[in-house]
Design brief:
It is built from twelve helices and 14 strands.
């Protein structure tokens, strides 16, 4: 059976689809998976042995720069139509993903209008499935694949399908960057954690993906001598950095989900976002969640107007992160990164 999966972005969402691929390959003999994904994330599907073909698409770049987009889009359409598929599965549930799925040759399936993130997307499918909301994103992916491909959704532990690295792992990666400012663990907390790690002879690496993140990484490293600011890394470089690390501490971001998928001991810090829906998952993962009255609010901007919260004389914003203090994170980090 030949399956085309449309799951284009974002980084964490792409990672969330990997266990469903593993389920499907175990349930269906000789399943051949092709995957349409945003060009920036093309290295993720390639990690799974069941994915024989990755079809990169550049919708984000085309929206920003139209020069040359028409020719590139034409080539992408030709790539999508090169094969005839037994099933085209849109597991993203957006209008744009439904349009992309509609270009491919083969019957289309996806979430029904009550399950999709954008209900109108369901109009583009021959078969649409009711998958309960309010459940973890990985579970919803596994259930959609099972319904669309006709097998019982397994209750087995999730398996991302990525071969584990056998090399020596050392040092800790502090993944401080995230798109929402509300999800950022306070910078003084990162400095405190970096200092504790260096003092314990645990090398610290600080990656970054934007100018703001680079500046923050350099401030943390300057305040915690012995820490290293990584060079700018593409996704392949980030995968290599995470894979050789003894542990990763991450805010709610795609990097945390990627570390979890790679089997690296991962501590994920959840303040305003809900770990029950989008928490990092895996045998080597621990989600540290805020124990605060209004958390998780799942809001891009903090609306807390109560008494200011302080940890060691540092005012904490967002206030919910006051319950995930550096001492709490360090205790868990020291345990998971021990030789």
């Amino acid at each position: 059976m030949r399956l085309l999966l449309v799951k284009m972005s974002s980084l964490g969402d792409v990672v969330h689809a990997l266990p469903a691929i593993t389920d499907a390959t175990r349930a269906i003999e000789n399943l051949d998976v092709h995957w349409v994904v945003e060009e920036a994330y093309r290295d993720i599907p390639a990690l799974h042995p069941a994915v024989s073909r990755v079809i990169p698409i550049a919708l984000r770049r085309w929206r920003r720069r139209w020069h040359g987009a028409v020719r590139e889009a034409g080539a992408c359409i030709a790539a999508l139509r090169r094969c005839t598929y037994d099933l085209v599965l849109d597991s993203q549930g957006l209008i744009k993903s439904a349009v992309v799925a509609g270009v491919a040759r083969g019957p289309r399936a996806g979430f029904d209008r009550d399950s999709a993130r954008e209900p109108i997307a369901a109009l583009g499918y021959r078969r649409a499935f009711a998958i309960a909301k309010g459940r973890h994103a990985i579970d919803r992916q596994r259930e959609l694949f099972a319904a669309a491909l006709g097998y019982e959704c397994p209750a087995t532990p999730l398996d991302y399908g990525i071969a584990r690295s056998r090399g020596t792992r050392a040092g800790v990666v502090l993944a401080h960057g995230t798109t929402w400012s509300n999800k950022r663990w306070p910078e003084p907390f990162w400095i405190d954690l970096a200092r504790r790690s260096v003092a314990a002879d645990i090398p610290v690496t600080l990656p970054w993906g934007s100018d703001d993140e680079r500046a923050r990484a350099h401030r943390i490293a300057a305040a915690a001598p012995g820490s290293t600011v990584a060079d700018r890394l593409d996704l392949r470089g980030m995968i290599e950095l995470l894979a050789r690390s003894a542990a990763v501490v991450s805010v709610d971001s795609g990097i945390g989900h990627l570390a979890a998928a790679l089997g690296v001991p991962t501590l994920a810090l959840y303040g305003p976002t809900d770990a029950r829906l989008t928490g990092c998952r895996g045998a080597t993962v621990e989600n540290l969640t805020a124990q605060f009255g209004c958390a998780p609010c799942v809001a891009r901007r903090c609306a807390y107007r109560g008494a200011p919260q302080f940890v060691d004389a540092v005012r904490v914003e967002p206030a919910c992160f006051s319950t995930i203090a550096p001492q709490r994170v360090w205790q868990r980090l020291a345990a998971v990164s021990a030789p």
